[in-house]
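Batch job 17 of 40 flagged for manual review because the log was empty.
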Amino acid sequence: MIEAPIDIQQLWNLPKEDFLKVSRMVFQWQAQHNEVYKQWVNLNKASANELITIPFLPISFFKTQEVIIGPKPITLFESSGTTQDIVSKHWVQDTALYEQSFLNGFKLVYGAPSNYCIIGLLPSYLERANSSLVYMVNQLIQASGHEESGFYLDDFKKLATVLKKLENEKQPVWLIGVSFALTDFAAAYPQKLVYTTVVETGGMKGRKKELTREELHEVLTTNLGTPPIHSEYGMTELLSQAYAIREGVFKCPPWMKVLVADEEDPIELKETGRGVLHVIDLANLYSCSFIATEDLGEVFDDGSFKVIGRIDSSVRRGCSLLVV
């Protein structure tokens, strides 16, 4: 494996003032060693003087190209999709890097996983191989160490019983689920959760009438009686996640940043405003850290952002089907 240009451990506490410097180093290294990205950079003839001048690789390249640095690795993450979709493939050289990224990202928002019983309600993801989301949640479950932590598939009756027990014990619970499974569970077993944090990760997957994020959160809050519903912003093509703890406003960890481009002029990048979201994920060292997504959103002055919807002409990702 080709040696990275930075000490990976410095990413997890990266000072805001160093983000541009480190991004430049990663850009120069990836433009040299990633053949797909090198071609894209040469076509765009761009520089890295500022974040807004770095060329961002269209996320669709992960569907047709091997976006990797070094020899082809063993670990492959694939996006969800229908049988007609061409799925994204993210080859990961170092799963330890992914684990450090999502564990440090989790701790920044929620504290240690060992403080929680961690429950995954991800039936559609467990039914297929190579899901980065399942990998992440499984590792968090292991880090939790609680006897009730685990995946509950569609066993709603058992989940309701376990949640009642944990609520009685005043045990903090971190329940992450795909949207359609959460709404099905909430409809079948309405209750009042006090010590449970519910985190939706999108994905109605065509199984129901699609809801806006606000509508989804209202349904879940009404049926589950929880404090504000949280959201997770992640995707197969990234090794980091952003979390929204209220009103759908996501905040990035120190090694991740979101920029925005005009939908009509994708070359014109800005640090704030509305348009197509462009993500810098410095944990994506051995693939590409500069990804032009197909999500529409708004980036605010403090670097937080909202997701508004999808580009009309894009193929919808299975893990992000909410039209907000």
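Reviewer: the log was empty due to a logging misconfiguration, but the result itself is present. Confidence is low (pLDDT under 50) at residues 314-324. Unflagging and moving on to job 18.
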